[in-house]
Design a protein that fits this description.
Length: 220
């Protein structure tokens, strides 16, 4: 249980720092209420965490020996890939991620814009347009959820949930997301230019390899 909590907390915290969703929260917090942005971003990340853990548990229904060695292989392969990706990144690669986040925010930076999405009916669209804070909350939630889908933190959570206790993986991952969201909302503007995506990616890669080796020696 402690391993599950620690592994998910460390991997999610390291992976999320400097990620696209991190910068989306930074940019939105510069324009809107910190409380609104924090609650909506964390809600989206928590929902994504629960869904990812459920996917990991679906994988865990396979025979234990397969999921055990499959998780080890995934940790090692993903760790090596992250280290390789980090070695190929230019030192200013975070600028591209910031640009992507800015584009995502600019395209939907309006309660009226988010209300026009086809997933909302006329009644809900009218409510979102009338109450600006609710429109901002929904905007941040939708953008964060979509940006997180298929991201490395989701893959990390699925792999961890397949190998470790799902409850403590969920708790550790949500706490990691909460820590990163607090940093993004409160101090993101100050540290955004100091975060190296290359270094963060490399650290995440080494952590995956460490947990892969640890899982191997723990046995089935």
């Amino acid at each position: 249980m402690l391993t599950a909590f620690t592994a998910s907390l460390l991997l999610i915290t390291i992976s999320e720092l400097g990620d696209k969703t991190f910068f989306i929260a930074v940019i939105l917090a510069m324009r809107h209420s910190h409380r609104t942005v924090f609650s909506s971003v964390l809600a989206a990340l928590a929902l994504m965490t629960v869904l990812s853990v459920l996917l990991g548990q679906a994988v865990a229904l396979l025979p234990k020996v397969y999921t055990h060695y499959g998780a080890i292989a995934l940790f090692l392969i993903f760790g090596i890939k992250l280290i390789y990706d980090a070695s190929q990144m230019p030192s200013k690669s975070e600028e591209a991620i910031v640009h992507e986040a800015e584009e995502a925010v600019e395209n939907q930076d309006s309660p009226k814009a988010i209300a026009k999405l086809p997933i909302f009916g006329n009644f809900l669209s009218a409510i979102l347009s009338r109450y600006s804070w609710l429109g901002v909350w929904t905007q941040a939630f939708v953008m964060t959820f979509l940006a997180e889908w298929g991201d490395r933190t989701q893959i990390s959570t699925i792999a961890l949930a397949a190998a470790y206790n799902p409850i403590f993986v969920t708790l550790g991952a949500i706490l990691g997301h909460a820590i990163c969201t607090v940093i993004a909302v409160i101090g993101g503007r100050l540290i955004a230019g100091k975060i190296s995506e290359r270094v963060i990616t490399a650290i995440g890669g080494f952590l995956f390899i460490i947990f892969g080796v640890t899982a191997y020696f723990q046995g089935v």
